[in-house]
């Protein structure tokens, strides 16, 4: 009896350590991701190439883990790849516009526009996926997010046309991507890791096209010709960390969702953004005014209200959790 009790105690302790470990890993990865991406794109100002390296890292990790039997993903199939192509294009556009936004604006602006996405997704789901209109309390949370974003924008002393052009591009691409990826999940029949693999692999294959359209190839050639320090440790380090954090947030996100409740995961999401704001205020000179920061916090409060108002039973919520985890930049 004593031996069984001691064994159960060790098992319970190990479970608690594991649960807190994955929660801490997710918090650290999610809170640092935007900061590291901003650092990486400042040192390596080629958003297309940066996102392509993130796609390659995630794709290679999924394939390797699949070979090692650490996870299961659907096999690659040309017909399925063709069907998935529109979703991959949208995913590419959303991550590319994300990198461009971080290049031209501060992290606060990124968080505000990321917080506004649910407002437009709610409308898109109703119009195109025949979902019911949100409840009154959901509209109240969306209105809170909108009010916070307006307060932030009107007090943004670093306002620039280029930054907000990319912010709007990010908002539009993310909204369409969220709505369409839900349609794909409901119709294409891939498992979670299959979706991650197809998403990142096909987005990676679009990279050469982006090089030509955006002229990034010529910019990179000029950097090499003028013997830039793009290959130095000061550049490689943030780029490498950006790729690893993108992979880390995917791993810890899935592990965390299995280990804790939906409410606990929502709380972690709030902690992540608060940590991001605090880190941003400490390490960067370029951040919002205190009024803008209040607007940002209002957006985050609206996000909490939104997640609470749309919480569903475990079975109904599982699918939406998998959709959300497809995004490497939260």
Content-based structural category: mainly alpha
- What is the count of β-strands? 0
Question: If helices are DSSP runs of H or I spanning 4 or more residues, what is the number of helices?
Answer: 13
Radius of gyration: 20 Å
Low-confidence stretches: 324-330
Query: Between the first and last Cα atoms, what is the distance in angstroms?
Result: 48 Å
Give the SSE order as H and E letters.
Answer: HHHHHHHHHHHHH
Main sheet? none
Keywords: Membrane, Transmembrane, Transmembrane helix
Transmembrane segments: 20-40, 52-70, 82-99, 111-129, 138-155, 161-181, 235-255, 262-283, 289-306
Protein name: GDP-mannose transporter GONST3
Domain Sugar phosphate transporter: 30-306
Description:
By secondary structure, the protein is mostly helical. The protein has one domain (23-311). Helix content is 82%, strand content 0%. It has 13 helices and no strands. The protein has helices at residues 2-43, 47-67, 78-104, 107-128, 136-154, 161-188, 192-205, 207-214, 216-225, 233-259, 262-283, 290-309, 314-325. The longest helix has 42 residues, at 2-43. The termini are far apart. Residues 30-306 form the Sugar phosphate transporter domain. This is GDP-mannose transporter GONST3. It is found in: Membrane. Keywords: Membrane, Transmembrane, Transmembrane helix. The chain crosses the membrane at residues 20-40, 52-70, 82-99, 111-129, 138-155, 161-181, 235-255, 262-283, 289-306.
